[in-house]
Specification:
Layout: H1 8-29, H2 32-39, H3 43-50, H4 53-64, H5 77-85, H6 90-106, H7 111-138, H8 152-167, H9 173-188
Helix pairs in contact: 1-2, 1-4, 1-6, 4-7, 5-9
Length: 190
Amino acid sequence: MTRSRLTPEREGELFGAVLDLLREVGYDALTMDAIAARTRSSKATLYRQWGGKPELVAKALRELSPHNSSQVDTGSLRGDFHAMVCRGDDAEMARDTALLRGLFQAIHTHPDLHRALREQLVEPDTGELQTVVRRAVERGEIREDNPAKDFLPHMLLGVFFAREVVDVRPPDIEFLRQYVDAVVLPALEA
C-alpha cells in the first residue's frame, strides 16, 4: 500500500469522518462513495491509501482510539490499568462501545473486516497489554506462570459487552475501575 501523503491533521479529519459515518449508518451501509463525499476525497485516493473499506475503518479506529497501553507506566499494575480505563470520559466510552458492538456483529458476515480489525486493533492491543503485564512480572507484582495472563484481553474486552447485557447500560469509568480491582487484579493474583 502507498504511504499517505496527507498531513496528520487531514488524516485525523478523514478518520473522524469515517467513524461518524459508521455511527450514523453502520458498517453494512457504509460505502467508499459516502466516505469520499463526506471527506471531499476521491474514491481512488481512498482505495490507493487504504486498500478498501475494512482497512480504512480499522485504521480509523486504531488512529482515533486511545491506545498504546504499553506507554502507560505508573509503576504499578493497578495504576496502569486504572490509567488505561480513565483515558476517555463516560459519554465517549458509551459511544465507542456502541460502535464496537456494531462492528463486532459485522465481522460475522465480513471476514475481511474481521481480518483488518485483528491486524489493526486486536493484535497491537494484545501486544501492548503483554508489555504492561511483563513489566508487572519484572516488578514482582504477578507470577510469570500465572495462567490468567493469557485471558487478560478476553477479560478486558468482554466487560464492555457484558455490562450492557447484564445491567442494560454501557460501562463507565467507575464500573471499569471496580472491575479491575474486583476481577482482573485478583485473577492475576496481583
